[in-house]
Known about the structure:
3 domains, Dna Ligase, domain 1, 13 helices, D-amino Acid Aminotransferase, Chain A, domain 1
Amino acid sequence: MNIHEYQAKALLREYGAPVSDGVPVTRAADAKDAAGQLDGPLWVVKAQIHAGGRGKGKFKEADAGEKGGVRLAKSVEEAAEEARRMMGRTLVTHQTGPAGKQVNRIYIEDGSDIARELYLALLIDRQTSRIGFVCSTEGGMDIEQVAADTPDRIVSFDVDPATGYQPFHGRRVAFALGLEGPQVKQCVALMGNLYRAFTEKDMEMLEINPLIVTDTGDLKVLDAKVSFDGNAMYRHKDIAELRDETEEDPKELAASKYDLNYIALDGEIGCMVNGAGLAMATMDIIKLYGAEPANFLDVGGGATKEKVTEAFKIITSDPNVKGILVNIFGGIMRCDVIAEGVIAAVKEVGLKVPLVVRLEGTNVEKGKEIIRNSGLDVIAADDLKDGAQKIVKAVKG
């Protein structure tokens, strides 16, 4: 689960992180009052979307030379005007893709005098199953580009969970970032606070880009991107309330309400599978035979007829889907339940694209019989290879 920058900064402020004062705005009409609450003389107006690269992004149908999603203003009136110009428009960055994201919230904060820009992130290292620090002197840039061009400027290390964060971890970050004198002490304290926030709030990633050194030599969190483990949100009702559903894919949002594991992709073949491993194998074999999967969808081992019906609706709601492959290996999941759900969904939403169904396992014959007697134009498959070949052929011709 992701949250907006202003929400992340409010959370980090509770843990003692130095952040600028700011006011979020959801209506352009409130921007002037919001800017008036800040001291100035410089205001920063930031579009709030769940994507990076806002400063370098462009609004759709932008005027020539128009600024991106992060703008500077030298008066309350100018800050309000910049907010008005951004609100409700679609911002395209390298992370949003060409479709972009609509700006429904603006964050206006005090400007900062910047002496240096640094990069810092805490994340879960999947190889070591530990919390890792990543830092670089190249703040304000895309870290992927830094990794490609100058990997020696990135320092990363993990924290042993047996000891947790220790002051030497903070000093290691400070020395990697070239900090000196009192800045080292500030860094040790800040890293400890960030590590505590990361663990206590079940974060998956905490990225600060840039972490700045001000003209007075102090550290400040100038931007913050935070994502959380969605499976842990039952422990954090306060964090769950920060969820902005307008930033999420409607199909993924609908799937989450039915406890379906769904991720939208860019292909043309919709997949309904039980089991994450089998779902990955299904997507791989679709690619092997020359097509692209339109989604990852794991209905789980104990899916009901209703869940299967909703899963099918979600797949068919994607306009990019030109064909559907249902691939079920029934262990805990019964093939007849899948068949009943598919039939119910087709009768409710209709079937406008080719549908290939491969069933194997518990109650497989009963499931196949339900499909055969449904009167629907369904293509049966004997195994996964056969199913992949048939759906690709049906879609590609």
